[in-house]
Amino acid sequence: MSKIAMTTPLVEMDGDEMTRILWKMIKDDLLIPFVDLKTEYYDLGLKHRDETNDQVTVDSAKAALKYGVAVKCATITPNAARVKEYNLKEMYKSPNGTIRAIMDGTVFRAPIIVKGVEPYVKTWKKPITIARHAYGDVYKATEMKIPGPGKVELVYTAEDGTETRELVHDFKSAGIVQGQHNLIPSITSFAKSCFNYALETKQDLWFASKDTISKKYDHTFKDIFQEIFDAEYKEKFEKAGITYFYTLIDDAVARVMKSEGGYIWACKNYDGDVMSDMVATAFGSLAMMTSVLVSPDGKFEYEAAHGTVQRHYYKHLAGEETSTNSVATIFAWSGALRKRAQLDSLKDLENFADKLEEATIKTIEEGYMTKDLALVSTLKDIHPLNSGDFIKAIAERLAALI
Ligand code: NAP
Ligand code: MG
């Protein structure tokens, strides 16, 4: 059998720990036997990030902008413990943060739904896609510890030197302070990405913030969404039979819990970080959540929503068997290959991406799954598999489908 051809390379961003182990297995067992895989490889493993002073992360993001489609493995965001563990030159920023800042995109996360893994929330019938704003707020905040009494002010110095001041607090004791910012162009592209994605996937769009308390900061988000909707999307949404709905974040959380799903929930950066883990877990497993970063001019970076699964990696290093779920990472590859296929008009490659997902879901629905799913699955006949055997079980079904 001849392998499926590619024309433009995918930008491949390798990563860390257990997901790096899965990454190689996925390539060896599910991709290379079927596809004449063309990638431009960037090693975002922490060791190589340190060797390049994190330049490799910046280069990989630029390559994603150049080629239009990237697939990324989970990576370690260093903290103090990691600096010691890897003997790092410095505590590098989150690679995802760096990539998001360069691509100026919005992250869309959706659960992969399979028979036998029922959502914890009884009313949820359809996936809930979370759109997370990928720039600013607490992720780009400047912080200060205030040692004792004194005034803290916000000062804006215009280019002509004029100053505008706002008192943050007149401290009578020691305290803490944080300055956050965001940018009108970034909020605008966030809003547009959300409206476009809603139209593309024909789902309602919800957006929520805390505009009643944050009358300038959060209110600006609300206003921008409404202005862009009224000016550019209102009619298109009516035609598509979908709606845009704004509410307060606490009201949104309550409504989400009572909903059926089947919509996109747009969140500010922090809300999206927190809510996507809640939604993923409530849908059955953090390992079943896909993630795609979409830039406003239509460049895509696909990944799993979970981290590097450190605890399993240490078991693996100790020679113990692991049962780590590779589904979200497989779907990152299938998503990236499908998008590449669509951009390059490669029917066979698009078909392969569909079959890869089909084989993965079929494997689980036939009762062959990793331990995290076996624990929650309602199927009668369950066969828990280790990390490698699960991927091999998918490979068998994939070969049969092709
Ligand atoms: P994690 O890797 O998401 O794992 C947390 C726990 O969730 C695991 O210990 C495991 O639970 C379960 N889990 C997650 N993914 C799983 C999978 N595929 N299969 C089975 N179980 C899975 O989060 P973490 O351990 O807090 O973080 C580890 C590293 O990942 C950190 O260095 C962090 O910086 C990084 N991280 C990277 C990204 C990214 O690159 N996008 C995102 C988040 C975190 P059990 O242990 O109970 O089995
Ligand atoms: Mg998070």
Characterize the structure shown.
The chain is of the alpha/beta class and 402 residues long. The chain folds into three domains: 220 residues, Isopropylmalate Dehydrogenase; 126 residues, Isopropylmalate Dehydrogenase; 37 residues, no CATH class. The chain contains 14 helices and 16 strands. The strands form four sheets. A ten-stranded mixed sheet has the order 2-1-3-14-13-4-5-12-10-11, sandwiched between helices. It has a two-stranded antiparallel sheet with strand order 6-9. A two-stranded antiparallel ribbon has the order 7-8. It starts with 9 loop residues before the first strand and ends with a helix. The model has no long low-confidence stretch (mean pLDDT 95). NADP nicotinamide-adenine-dinucleotide phosphate binds next to α10.
CATH superfamily of the largest domain: Isopropylmalate Dehydrogenase
Strand runs, count: 16
Helix content: 40-55%
Q: Mean pLDDT score, rounded?
A: 95
Largest sheet: spatial strand order: 2-1-3-14-13-4-5-12-10-11
Order of secondary-structure elements: EHEHHEHHEEEEEEHEHEHEHEEHHHEHEH
Quaternary state reads: single chain
User: How far apart, in Å, are the first and last alpha carbons?
Assistant: 10 Å
Question: What is the topology?
Answer:
Elements: E1 10-14, H1 17-31, E2 39-43, H2 46-51, H3 55-67, E3 69-72, H4 80-85, H5 95-103, E4 106-111, E5 129-133, E6 142-146, E7 150-157, E8 163-171, E9 175-179, H6 184-201, E10 204-209, H7 217-240, E11 244-248, H8 249-258, E12 263-267, H9 269-282, E13 289-294, E14 300-304, H10 310-317, H11 327-344, H12 347-365, E15 368-369, H13 371-376, E16 383-384, H14 387-401
Helix pairs in contact: 1-10, 1-14, 3-5, 6-7, 11-12, 12-14
Residues 273, 277 line the site of magnesium ion.
